[in-house]
Specification:
The protein is α+β, with helices and mostly antiparallel strands. It is built from 8 helices and 10 strands. The chain folds into 2 domains: about 140 residues, Alpha-Beta Plaits (2-Layer Sandwich); about 120 residues, Pseudouridine synthase I, catalytic domain, C-terminal subdomain (Alpha-Beta Plaits, 2-Layer Sandwich). Strands 1, 2, 3, 4, 5, 6, 7, 8, 9 and 10 form a 10-stranded mixed sheet that branches.
Length: about 325
């Protein structure tokens, strides 16, 4: 089980090289904090200049039923704008252009998060229960906060994918995961962003897989990820484990001189579990309790819907 409030990645089954990768996460330069290592240092220097004596990092969760994560002029129901409006309504923020200084990780429409973060300048120290009252029933939660003087050091990002069990071969899936782990060119496993000149080289630190009769739980750890990269990795693992593609196909996809498109897996199976930083957050027992209750209620609804669908399928067989 993952404890997002003390998410220290430690897997005794890792080899020494993988352990060294984790130990060497934090680079000294300012660009080591970002979501995209190709951003110029000036970009991060500009963020630091915007920080004040009341800069806060907020740990946030969301259920994927919004119009994406980051601000967008045509999608007002995005996570960042929902939080900013709540902060303004609480009297913690005055509206100004680009109120979010930094985000922990960009996620697409439909993707969920348990431990993303945003950094904002506030007027005063926030009260989490007050923010919760403004966010209720919006599918977005502010779980924790901390006042900061420097940008956080991002140690790793942890994604989890829930893949339906359709008879995939677990051993083949694990062999595929071994090939994907490490430093590779993921140009075939990402969506191109023509507005940025990004390196396609990324490093996966570890992939863990657990199986039950209903789904596979796939945990992927790394420092930085390309656009759609995790969901395309899941597609590759599923196709290989179903016997639709060979393990050699994985080698081809990671070859910098080979080009083949791979479709991303559906977004609603993906959770950004945590963006692990050096920050010690303050939490509200009340907000965490309410958050868990809302998740339990959503779980009950989903179990009922799944049971109804399964029964209808079984009745059709008779």
């Amino acid at each position: 089980m993952v404890d997002i409030f003390n998410d220290n990645y430690n897997n005794s089954n890792n080899n020494s090289n993988t352990k060294n990768n984790f130990n060497n996460f934090n680079n000294k330069n300012i660009s080591s904090n970002n979501d995209n290592t190709d951003e110029p240092k000036q970009h991060w220097a500009n963020i630091v200049k915007r920080m004040t004596d009341n800069t806060y990092i907020l740990k946030i969760a969301y259920n994927g039923n919004n119009e994406g994560f980051q601000s967008h002029p045509e999608k007002k129901n995005n996570v960042c704008d929902i939080i900013v409006r709540a902060l303004i309504n609480c009297g913690y923020m005055e509206y100004y252009e680009k109120p979010v200084l930094l985000r922990g990780g960009r996620t697409d429409d439909g993707v969920l998060a348990l431990g993303n973060f945003i950094i904002v300048n506030l007027i005063k120290e926030p009260i989490l229960s007050h923010i919760y009252s403004k966010l209720k029933n919006k599918g977005v939660w502010v779980l924790g906060y901390a006042k900061i003087n420097n940008l956080p050091k991002i140690e790793y990002r942890h994604y989890r994918y829930i893949l339906p069990n359709e008879g995939q071969n677990l051993n083949l899936m694990k062999m595929c995961a071994e090939k994907l782990t490490g430093e590779h060119s993921f140009h075939n496993l990402s969506k191109r962003d023509n507005t940025k000149n990004k390196s396609m080289i990324r490093k996966i630190y570890n992939i863990e897989i657990e199986e039950n009769p209903f789904f596979f739980t796939i945990d992927i750890y790394g420092k930085n990820f390309l656009w759609n990269m995790v969901r395309r990795i899941i597609t590759v693992m599923s196709k290989v484990s179903l016997g639709e593609k060979s393990l050699n196909w994985v080698d081809n996809l990671l070859n910098p001189n080979y080009n083949e498109g791979v479709a991303p897996a559906p977004p609603n199976g993906l959770i950004l579990v945590n963006v692990k930083t050096n920050i010690q957050y303050k939490y509200s027992d009340y907000v965490i309790r309410q958050f868990k209750n809302e998740l339990k209620e959503e779980y009950r609804k989903n179990i009922t819907n799944s049971g109804v669908s399964l029964n209808m399928i079984n009745l059709l067989k008779k």
